[in-house]
User: What shape does this take?
Amino acid sequence: MSMFCYQCQETAKGTGCEVRGVCGKTEEVAKLQDLLIYSLKGIAEIVVKGKLDVKDLGPVNHEVLKGLFMTITNANFDAEAFETEIKKMLTLRKMLRAKVAAADWHDAVTFEVDSKEAMLEKAASVGVLATQNEDVRSLREMITYGLKGLAAYTHHALNIGKENNELYAFVYEALAATLNDKLTAEDLVALTLKTGQFGVAAMALLDEANTSKYGHPQITEVNLGVRGNPAILISGHDLTDLEQLLEQTKGTGVDVYTHSEMLPAHYYPAFKKYDNLAGNYGNAWWKQVGEFESFNGPILFTTNCIVPPRSEEVRARIFTSGASGYPGCPHITADENGKKDFSAIIAMAKTLRPPTEIETGTLVGGFAHEQVFAVADKVVAAVKSGAIKKFFVMAGCDGRMKSREYFTEFAAKLPMDTVILTAGCAKYRYNKLKLGDIGGIPRVLDAGQCNDSYSLAVIALKLKEVFGLDDINKLPIAFNIGWYEQKAVIVLLALLYLGVKNIHLGPTLPGFLSPNVAKVLVETFGIAGIGTVDEDIKLFLGA
Ligand code: SF4
Ligand code: SF3
Assistant: This one.
């Protein structure tokens, strides 16, 4: 075995990628990611044991978030970027160690590597399988993956200037705990739930950052067709990149289209003022292989999900920023004020053909918490009259497995008196079906990106209050979630922390759950996989 990674839903055979990632991650990148995570754990141990105050650790806090984020599935495939990041972490680690008295440090604090070869050699002994006990390994990894998702959301909030020191303190506490051999499985289960608690805080922080800067999402119709101008496609989740790109393309004759998880940007009032924000192009991340060919123009990845391009022609049109990266593709970094210079992308767009139209029509979205509260009377009346019998939260991720057709069929077969609440790229499995509306309320309510699952939780808590219930599980809401990468892990842990029971998770349960850990999740929280569409609908509707 040359590598081991089982952090995403598409992991090989459902158990682990051992030679090369199904995602395209090479052995080299997998190992460097393992070592980067290990060095982050070392930094965390110094902060925790040395009782350092996170308030004084600004640049370290930011770099730790970025390091975690870079290792999310499909965010960064660039070995060189990881090598640089590890070196940066080891410098920060040295600086922190100098601040505290010597202690009985873990190897993660003391190891040294002076070349890429040494990094790869060291990585071989510090990856996932270094933890022998499979239950402890399972819990340590679940916490680490939750932290990766949490770090991604916190990093987006940071880009908007919002921070929360308690979140940083928790990241250090949890990372350091994954090195502690004295912690029992029970301790780690408790820490897993605590990760969910801070996941809620991270999503709340990002929600606050997004809405204070860009306004509250509004019901919006998004164009799916194309115009005749040269254009740039922007993918990923970072709204500050989109804002800067729109500013820099204003008046240049170059249009900007959103892709995949960037679609919900259209719902924010602040982006509606840009005439050159032309629409959304394509579908969920995994369909990019064909869709990028027909887009014709340059593509900017601000975060995951990158699929290794199959042609040199497409690769030459890809740019990355933030935590994302791809070998050979220009990476655009921010200056000390957070400004990014996208002129190279704009210049390239001008030399290329406008996008080829692949579909027409529109999509409607923007049902985040404030917008839903604005029509709350209508929603509550529809529930009371029986016009809406049940809500189905179908948030999360999409992916390329054929078994995900389940979610399309599930959405299509749901009775007409049900409403789907969604967020994340999972929606692409059914958001273009004509599912109609109930008295003017669309049957698919899209709150936004995967982090906007927070909005769905806020809506659920509001409904609980309106209906005077003492338990969120008494609401007519079922959870049938698609997951793929680690942001979905933090969303899941957040829902568990909020007390949501009986979540169905598909298309398969995580490969990182050991049988015993899976048993705890099933027995304590009623977590289940998916079955057949007909059986599941019957089960959910109690028929
Ligand atoms: Fe495999 Fe997923 Fe890890 Fe990629 S991220 S190597 S597909 S488990
Ligand atoms: Fe999708 Fe990658 Fe998870 Fe933000 S873009 S949800 S998979």
Notes: The mean pLDDT is 97. The domain at 366-541 is CATH 3.40.50.2030 (Rossmann fold). The chain has three domains: 12-213, 220-351, 366-541.
